[in-house]
Amino acid sequence: MKYLSKVMDETIRMRGNPFTMLREVVKDTELNGYFIPKGWKVFMFQATVHMDPEIYSNPEEFIPSRWDDFIPKSGTFQPFGAGSRACPGSDLGKLEISIFLHYFLLNYKFEQLNPRSPLVHLPSSDPIDNCRAKITKLR
């Protein structure tokens, strides 16, 4: 189950929802040479944070082992939001994903029809062909 947790975190990092978060600036702020006045609304595109090569090496590659000893800094992994707007169902969501994957992986075979399908990365990482696959029941 430890590896499954890493697979889930890597999947959520690469394909998280929502892909943006809207926030109101609570005090005048300067960021990278830009002045953002108090009261302005700003969009944070999660994909740009979750795919930042300064935070995640080889961000476009699916590497569950990156989570072996990696503890992301605050604000660099927010698949369920953060602070007072964090999703209250995040733990339940992860539990549901792990139960589904447990039964799916034990009872079905998944064969991607085009494993070399190119990816598009905005608004999130998705195969261009929508990951067409053949699923067959085992046993």
Automatic annotation (TrEMBL):
<dbReference type="GO" id="GO:0016132">
    <property type="term" value="P:brassinosteroid biosynthetic process"/>
</dbReference>
<keyword id="KW-0408">Iron</keyword>
<keyword id="KW-0472">Membrane</keyword>
<comment type="similarity">
    <text>Belongs to the cytochrome P450 family.</text>
</comment>
<feature type="binding site" description="axial binding residue">
    <location>
        <position position="87"/>
    </location>
    <ligand>
        <name>heme</name>
    </ligand>
</feature>
<dbReference type="GO" id="GO:0005506">
    <property type="term" value="F:iron ion binding"/>
</dbReference>
<keyword id="KW-0812">Transmembrane</keyword>
<dbReference type="GO" id="GO:0016125">
    <property type="term" value="P:sterol metabolic process"/>
</dbReference>
<dbReference type="Pfam" id="PF00067">
    <property type="entry name" value="p450"/>
</dbReference>
<dbReference type="InterPro" id="IPR017972">
    <property type="entry name" value="Cyt_P450_CS"/>
</dbReference>
<dbReference type="GO" id="GO:0010268">
    <property type="term" value="P:brassinosteroid homeostasis"/>
</dbReference>
<protein>
    <submittedName>
        <fullName>Cytochrome P450</fullName>
    </submittedName>
</protein>
<keyword id="KW-1133">Transmembrane helix</keyword>
<keyword id="KW-0560">Oxidoreductase</keyword>
<keyword id="KW-0479">Metal-binding</keyword>
<dbReference type="GO" id="GO:0051777">
    <property type="term" value="F:ent-kaurenoic acid monooxygenase activity"/>
</dbReference>
<keyword id="KW-0349">Heme</keyword>
<dbReference type="GO" id="GO:0020037">
    <property type="term" value="F:heme binding"/>
</dbReference>
<dbReference type="InterPro" id="IPR001128">
    <property type="entry name" value="Cyt_P450"/>
</dbReference>
<dbReference type="GO" id="GO:0005783">
    <property type="term" value="C:endoplasmic reticulum"/>
</dbReference>
<keyword id="KW-0503">Monooxygenase</keyword>
<dbReference type="InterPro" id="IPR036396">
    <property type="entry name" value="Cyt_P450_sf"/>
</dbReference>
<dbReference type="InterPro" id="IPR002403">
    <property type="entry name" value="Cyt_P450_E_grp-IV"/>
</dbReference>
<dbReference type="GO" id="GO:0016020">
    <property type="term" value="C:membrane"/>
</dbReference>
